[in-house]
Design brief:
The chain has about 120 residues and is mainly β. It is about 0% helix and about 55% strand. It contains no helices and 11 strands. The strands form 2 sheets. Strands 2, 4, 5, 6, 9, 10 and 11 form a 7-stranded mixed sheet that branches. Strands 1-3-8-7 form a 4-stranded antiparallel sheet, with no helix packed on it. Strand 7 and strand 8 form a beta hairpin. It starts with a strand and ends with a strand. The model has no long low-confidence stretch (mean pLDDT about 95).
Amino acid sequence: QVQLVESGGGLVQPGGSLRVSCAASGFTFIDYHLAWVRQAPGKGLEWVSRISTDPSDTYYADSVKGRFIISREYDKHAVNLQMNSLKPEDTAVYYCFADLLVGGSWSSYWGQGTQVTVAS
């Protein structure tokens, strides 16, 4: 059974830091690209960051570039998002996402999300 389980969300003051993590199970972790996607209240999904099977291949949305760092831990089958210099506009539910292109079709999975609230 495939599972992506996020943890580490919470309330943090503006300018603070927080790390969210996602533990993956039920699929071949090293084969999948991983990403963090967020949804702020009343808004659509925003692709925050992505890390390829090659961990040196990463992507960051302009809104978080220079503040967030994505990483993957192969021994723990986990993907982390270190969030620094947080702003109120970073408030959102953060979802973990994994996908793999196989034979022309995408195999993808979502976590249940973790709430991050940035407020004083």
